[in-house]
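for the writeup, i need someone to sanity check this before i put it in the appendix. the sequnce is what the collaborator sent (i think, or maybe the updated version? ugh). structure was predicted straight from it, no edits. if anything looks off just tell me and ill rerun, i have time this weekend
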Amino acid sequence: MTSVFYRGVTETYPKAMRSDGMYIFDETGKKYLDMSGGAAVSCLGHQHPKVIEALCQQIKTMAFAHTGFFTNEPQEKLAQMLAARFGEKEARVYFTSGGSEANETAFKIAWQYWRAKGQESKKKIIARNFSYHGSTYATLSIGGSLRRRVVGDVLLEWPRIDPCYAYRNQLPHESEEEYGLRAANSLEATILKEGAENIAAFIVEPVVGTTIGCVPAAKGYFKRIRAICDQYDILLISDEIMCGTGRVGSFFAYEQEDFLPDMVTLAKGIGGGYQPLAATIVRHHIHDFFVTSGKGFDHGHTYVGHASACAAGCAVLTTIDEDNLLANVRSKGEMLQQKLEEAFKDHPHIGDIRGRGLFRAIEIVADKKTKQPFPDDANITKKLKQAAMKHGLICFPCSGSTKDNLGSCIMFAPPFILEESHLDELMGKLHAILKDVL
């Protein structure tokens, strides 16, 4: 018997009792290898002593003081750490509790910014099909996640373009650069259709996460996207909730694409699972306009800049730097890609193996030649998760590669402390899982 309203209302879950490093243990003592950090959250693994110590010290000193009345030292320190990493001086950072809130904050900044500038018609936010930007009303309306289906027509309809998804959308005669340019130009076409005077922002994941599984953009895509946004005076929001905080091998994912967004949203990894934490980083000219215009910015949540959460964030970022973990993300990420390719490149149901850093995925198809996914009623994604848990593996099966027949991916976003022995353990479990399901 339970009083919990579970995520899966018809499912039962093992009870997690303790965790350590790369593993979580349930009430029976069964050990699970965590190869997705939950949902790309536990970047330092579980029970990291540096983070626990910092968090305990902060709670002993002051757990919470509402930031409608006070600032606090952890908030100030973490904002400085993030702003220093951003590609432009004097960026400002707004802290919230989760990714949906971070993106909602970015939208409200965009809307209030244009309103303050007297351009009140700039309201629409363009996203991409198969994009997930959160579960609030605004983020679910704007995003292109197939979760929209279960909510129905209460959501608002916003303009969307297709993702830069070479495996499915690049034509045989196109080079990578040609495809990237074509994919990016669909943004300009949509802006012209909707009217640039009506567009506030474009939100995009530099490496797509849960909906289609670790899909990076083609070369040149984001340079063209940045140029289009500049040409039509549209804010560019880089959603790095999942792919940021070092996940792809650089602290910000946008750094690998050589463009500077107007806003970046982070969550998951910056709190490392030790506290709910998210951030919206804003270029200085946007923040400065709220100040100099006298219009201010009207928005807030109870736990904005929560002292304990920000203390955990400071410890996570410090540990990433002191332990040189981004180098491990890059080296182990390449090793993970190599091992996946060696094991599964000839598998009849593995269509693509892709990603960056420790953000990798395999796409599962019914027919390798045609790239046809399994039909929805085969429930491949659900079966993959069940088989993974049976074999003591936490990975992230996800779906959304086509509109009607969803397709399936297994996504890997392990902690940055990953070692080669964990990869060998993963390969053994994956062979068993795929045998069970396929």
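The chain has 14 helices and 17 strands. Residues 41 and 69 are 30 Å apart (CA to CA).
thx in advance!!
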